[in-house]
Amino acid sequence: MLAIDVQMLRKEFQVQQSRGGLKGAVQDLFKREYKQITAVKDISFQIPKGEICGYIGENGAGKSTTIKMLTGILVPTSGHIKVNGYVPFKEREKFVAGIGVVFGQRSQLWWDIGVVESFQLLKKVYRVSEADYKKRLDELVDRLQLSDLLSRPVRKLSLGQRMRCELAASLLHNPEILFLDEPTIGLDIVVKTEIREFLKSLNQRYETTILLTTHDLQDIEALCSRVIMLDDGRIIYDGGLEELKARWGKGKEVVLQFEHPTTLARLQELTLGLDVAWQLENELSAKVFIPYERANISEVLSRVVGVLQIQDIKINETNTDDIVREIYKSGSAEVKRLEIDQPEGVTIHA
Ligand SMILES: Nc1ncnc2c1ncn2[C@@H]1O[C@H](COP(=O)(O)OP(=O)(O)OP(=O)(O)O)[C@@H](O)[C@H]1O
What number is the average pLDDT over the span 51-58? Predict the structure, then answer.
């Protein structure tokens, strides 16, 4: 079953333009000029129930605008959306009962009252029964370690504490779909890790579908099997994270520690005919860069390990941050490269 179904979704904004100078300001008083911005340009994607999908893109790519349309805050200019079987901006009451939303930069909790009082208000808003509320709250307090925070006003909480409370607030009514807009922004690494672990177990236990936007690719690595990449309002990649790495990653780096001193010339001689690049760090340690498609790691290793005694080997995986940065930078030319020999399950949008 589909949790989210988006077809040819588009959002345009009219933005007021100001003319410069005194004359312009006077003209603006009488007749405003408007400019049209298309934040989301006819995108389509489907997310099955139970999937955790990362929605990424640079600043201004259109991520928040999409999330706002998916949660019914904004009405699309054109296109179709079904979330949990509902059209988000139409059937509001039924729709919101099935979704949870956390905007990392904004709070859904009341600033001056105790956390638990906010929870009780949300219980009323979502019409959660006393028994369900109690059960759910106990579980969330336990798993997000909230017991010391419940009586404190939100304004007295640290960012990490507040974010744990925000997550609990969004889940009190046990929604089937959770939308997270930058859920780990500004948090330290310990809290980020706790939140990722919590989301993973939530997904496993309840099959909660999660769509999250983030600039932190560690969130994606930790949580998402699938990633949708947006650039200037259009989807430029929709597929698995592993495929993304395999297709866009340039290669792997292997670091070798030798038992006995060796030389660069000796290493190059051993891998003669293979398209790899050696770098000697000292006489007992060297790095070799093995480009994907042009050489394979087992061939390189078998040639070296068979002859030299090795003390240690480390394989450095492709860094997703670098890959994604490069895709953003390279734009359409690189997208064309992806279109060749497209693997199954990966949709590339030009
Ligand atoms: N209410 C609005 N009125 C006019 N323009 C808007 C409005 N909301 C968003 N935009 C514009 O739409 C484009 C997409 O913005 P959006 O906030 O969706 O991007 P984003 O990918 O979420 O970026 P960020 O990572 O910075 O949050 C931007 O050019 C933005 O200025």
Answer: 93
Ligand 1 center–CA 321 separation, angstroms:
22
Residue nearest to atom 26 of ligand 1 (CA): 59
For a mutational test of ligand 1's pocket, the pick from 63, 69, 74, i.e. the residue with the most ligand atoms closer than 8 A to its C-beta, is 63
pTM of the predicted protein model: 0.78
Q: Let me know the angle formed at the C-alpha of 305 by 302 and 311, rounded to the nearest 5 degrees.
A: 145
Topology adopted by domain 50-245: Rossmann fold (3.40.50)
Do 108 and 169 meet the contact criterion of CB atoms below 8 Å apart?
Answer: yes
Distance (Å) from CA 64 to ligand 1 centroid: 7
d(CA 206, CA 177): 10
The predicted pLDDT at position 335 comes to 44
What does the domain layout of the chain look like in residue ranges?
Answer: 50-245, 250-316
**CATH of the structural domain 250-316, one choice from 3.40.1190.10, 3.30.70.1570, 3.40.1080.10, 3.30.70.270:** 3.30.70.1570
